[in-house]
Amino acid sequence: MGSDVRVRPRLTVLSGPSGVGKSSVLGELRRMGPEIHFSVSVTTRKPRPGEIDGVHYHFVDVPEFHKMIENGELLEHAEFAGNCYGTPRAPVERALAAGRPSLLEIELQGARQVRRAMPDAQLVMLAPPSWEDLVGRLTGRGTEDPTVVARRLEIAREELAAEPEFDEVVVNADVKSAAASLLNLVVGPVPGA
Description:
GO terms for molecular function: ATP binding; GMP kinase activity. This is Guanylate kinase. The protein has a single domain, classed as P-loop containing nucleotide triphosphate hydrolases (Rossmann fold), CATH 3.40.50.300. 30% of the residues are buried. The model is unreliable at 1-6 (pLDDT under 50). The protein is an alpha/beta fold. The strands form two sheets. It has a five-stranded parallel sheet, sandwiched between helices. The protein has a four-stranded mixed sheet with strand order 4-3-6-5. The protein has helices at 22-32, 62-70, 89-97, 108-117, 131-140, 146-161, 175-187, and strands spanning 11-15, 37-38, 42-43, 58-59, 74-80, 83-88, 102-105, 122-127, 168-171. Strand 5 and strand 6 form a beta hairpin.
């Protein structure tokens, strides 16, 4: 008889610079790991066309957001481009208590806050194959103002420099391979695989 080893599910935080492919990798991960709880962030920004409250974000006003902070309802929160963003604590705790691994996709500042709030959280950085690859991804579209691209690259350099703060690094050279590596980190190796 083989032993069925149960590992307590934990929270995994995915972070990485703009342009590294987080959305693509997470889209593939959703397909591969339907048992994973994906956290839905709270934001004070207005919904964009096609965004659904409770699916893409929980849309709230500024006073409600500040009330959530005061009540300790957020694992992390930050302001970006004039809007507030945060991760609700209760859905993550419910998923973990029910035995489901939970995944957050947030930026570096938020990852640091989660580390303080939940020290046993696993921090994973999604990294580009090379700096040149990331520069190519951010400049290749040619649709953004050069000053915006320069600022994103400056922030990306700072984020990548924080790699030693992370438990694991997944390089996104190929979306399916990166998603498979992330799945293994989130749910653990599949017995017999």
